[in-house]
Design goal:
Layout lengths: L8 E5 L12 H8 L7 E5 L7 H11 L5 E4 L10 H6 L3 E4 L4 H11 L1 H10 L3 E5 L1 H4 L2 E4 L12 E2 L4 E6 L6 H12 L6 E4 L3 E6 L2 E7 L5 E8 L2 E8 L1 E2 L7
């Protein structure tokens, strides 16, 4: 068996990163460290926020200070006529938060979902927080719009199962996740507190890291008539990186 096949990598954050922790670069540094290059090319995709100008400025303000070559992809103002070529020249695709439903709809309209799958299969790292975390799974739970906690969001399905971000910050989301699992409207999955990143290689959860000392991830499953929540310990990145 060849050892030269590219790794399919996804780093899904329950919350955190530059937009939620502007003075804490631990998760963002970890993402850059997944690429064996001094200055990896990292592209921010703010589709879920409606390509918010403020969000894009925040991205450049942070990543301009880090060892990388930053860019962004706006579907309202595309950076290139050939989106596929633009995406496939990146090392990291970093997806922001917002509305996962709008994100999925726009990506499919532009066929960006197909391009991102090809990028993933070629070894380009896919990552993001909140909507940008949920989108890689089969489905998830969003609190972006009124009533949205009652309706699971169908996502891309690169990773099996469901995902719930912001697990510690939004108790109502946690309750809704359990309810939707118990009603079998969502499959078993992973939840993540703010500041927690789930690092997948292929479909295997390889590592859990955090930018906050006590933040955790959880495996959440329906077993019989109950929903079981199993805490998964995260490695605190503050012991690895010194700002």
């Amino acid at each position: 068996m060849s050892n030269n096949l590219p790794l399919k990598q996804i780093f899904a954050m329950g919350g955190g990163g530059f937009s939620m922790e502007p003075k804490n670069f631990l998760l963002d540094k970890y993402i850059l460290g997944l690429v064996d290059k001094q200055k990896p090319r990292v592209c921010f995709v703010p589709t879920a926020s409606g390509d918010s100008d403020h969000y894009i400025v925040e991205f450049y303000s942070t990543f301009g200070k880090l060892s990388c070559t930053p860019s962004h992809l706006s579907l309202f103002n595309p950076p290139a006529t050939d989106l596929k070529a633009f995406v496939l020249e990146q090392n990291i695709i970093y997806v922001g938060g917002g509305s996962p439903k709008n994100l999925i709809a726009l990506w499919r309209e532009w066929e960006l979902d197909k391009i991102l799958r090809e990028a993933w299969e070629k070894g380009i790292i896919l990552c993001g927080l909140s909507a940008g975390s949920m989108c890689w799974f089969e489905a998830g739970i969003s609190a972006y719009a009124p009533g949205s906690l009652n309706n699971p969001v169908k996502c891309l399905g690169f990773l099996k199962g469901s995902h719930c971000p912001h697990y510690d910050r939004e108790p109502e989301r946690r309750l809704a996740y359990h309810r939707l699992l118990s009603e079998e409207l969502l499959d078993d999955g992973y939840a993540a507190d703010d500041g927690v990143g789930l690092y997948f290689v292929g479909d295997r959860l390889e590592k859990i890291v955090s930018s906050r000392p006590n933040a955790k991830a959880y495996r959440v499953e329906k077993i019989g008539e109950t929903v079981k929540e199993t805490p998964l310990q995260a490695t605190y990145l503050g012991n690895l990186f010194k700002d």
